[in-house]
Design goal:
Blueprint: E1 3-4, E2 7-8, H1 20-24, H2 45-56, H3 70-82, H4 93-109, H5 114-124
Antiparallel strand pairs: 1-2
Length: 125
């Protein structure tokens, strides 16, 4: 913190940058391959990656574990509903593409500098 006369400066506008740890979980997540349509009781790497993406997005899938259990089916159905897709809890190709798109957005967001963006916005106005 910078000091003037021994006193720290408080910002007029506080903008928090995203903590590094928030996006650390993205490192192990891969895009869904769109070769099968996992449903209840399916086990696969795509299920694990879908569960991981859903968890980062705030959906309750429990602990990502490769198994398309009832909790995962409910989370997928809610995600589908939220995205305007047919909501039935199966990881169909449209849902997998939507999850891949969300993963791409999350990866781009981790490199954003919210403080810099706000400063530019304020200087333009």
């Amino acid at each position: 913190m910078r000091m003037i006369d021994g006193v720290g400066l408080e910002p007029d506008i506080y903008v928090e940058n995203s903590p590094e740890g928030k996006y650390k979980v993205l490192e192990g997540i891969k895009k869904l391959r769109k070769v099968t349509k996992p449903s209840l009781n399916t086990e696969s790497e795509d299920v694990l990656n879908a569960e991981s993406i859903l968890a980062v997005l705030g959906y309750d899938v429990g602990t990502p574990d490769n198994l398309m259990d009832e909790k995962t089916v409910r989370a997928v159905a809610q995600f589908q509903k939220d995205c305007g897709l047919y909501s039935y809890g199966v990881l169909d190709f449209a849902t997998q593409q939507e999850l891949n798109d969300k993963l791409d957005e999350l990866i781009l967001m981790k490199d954003r500098d919210s403080q810099y963006e706000k400063a530019v916005e304020l200087l333009k106005n």
